[in-house]
Amino acid sequence: MEIAVFDFLYRRDLKKLRNEILAYTSEDSLWVQIPGTINSGGNICQHLIGNLRTYIGLPIGGYAYVRDRDAEFSARLFSQEELLNELDVLLEIIPDSIMKLSDEALAREYPHDILTINAEQSYSLVLTHLAMHLAWHTGQINYHRRIVNA
User: CATH fold of 3-148, please?
Assistant: First the structure.
């Protein structure tokens, strides 16, 4: 994939995620744990924020971030409004980070000390993996929201 494609996909899917969080009918509904599931929509959103800031914003864009992955799943780190604000920040820093790469840089090895998903992992592979992770979890949030808003 080329830089412009990654830029398009991340902007599109971050906007979808933001619209999902905005569509929850109440603050409390974000945090409902549906029987048979592990995470609420709010916790999944917190996880996506931490994931993208850690693996794109920090190493590629140089945006400072300290992650507490356990808290993403076990605590309410943000209110609904704060989640929306964090997603607005992501809509700035993720495309900016991606645009700092060149098409040639996509073929370079993504550092294993940051994230290891494969023995040979280019920036392109990692960005593709993270885009799919974003889309997958956004779909989970969509399903969660439809159930708790019913």
Answer: Four Helix Bundle (Hemerythrin (Met), subunit A) (1.20.120)
